[in-house]
Hints:
Blueprint: H1 11-30, H2 35-44, H3 49-70, H4 72-76, H5 86-102, H6 106-124, H7 126-132, H8 140-157, H9 162-172, H10 178-202, H11 208-229, H12 234-258
Amino acid sequence: MAAMLFGLADPSQVLIVFIAAVLAGAGNAVAGGGTNLSFPILVWAGLPAVEANATNALGLSSGSVAAAWSYRKRIRETDPRWWWLVVPAVVGGTLGAWLLLALPPEWFTSIAPLLVIGAAILVASDPVLRRHIRIGAGNGTVVAIGLMLLTSFYGGYFGAGIGILILVVLSLLGMPDLHQANGFKNMLAVAVKGVAVVIFIAQGRIIWGAAIVLLVGSTIGGWGAGYLVQKLQPETLRWVVVTMGLAMGCIMVVRQYLL
Length: 259
């Protein structure tokens, strides 16, 4: 009976969802991709896909907040010119969340594995991209708004790998330090998911018991990993990001196309 209060069938599912939340919160703090773990676990536990997606967005939001808090010193040191990216992040997250509730989720779900794998490859190619891609002062604002809108739109709709995609956007826009970009990525993810979560709550799509389990687990994972990852060298962090992205993407490909 107690387990049913969590929207899950039995106590073992509560434990599995909690462990998944801890790992997902840690994964999002490092690079992103936590949704690739927690969302399919919620579906496996019997939640309908749209409700699982909405519940997962709320449940992992605390992990992103905790990770951003652990990066607060680096975030405070971020050049103020980056902060306006919050605006397209909120707009895109709103539109994506609206589309999730208005249309079936199959389209974005089907391309999510390719987006995650592609984003990981882009992170791996970051040094080469920086040498050959420059966004000039004349069109930088337009390009930045477009990239952030597209990324946050996807984040509001489904969001698997959103952290990796935001890292790629920040890299292409010229944020020089990967640790600083990782901290700022967590803050932008909070903006994207936060506005989506408000919409999901207003529309009654949250399974609250499962969301509480996710909130507790992702907070623990996000806070702990957020502090630990800052001890890594930037190149080491880059390859952690790449490895996680490729692994999560391959898992999604297998689940989506082979099973």
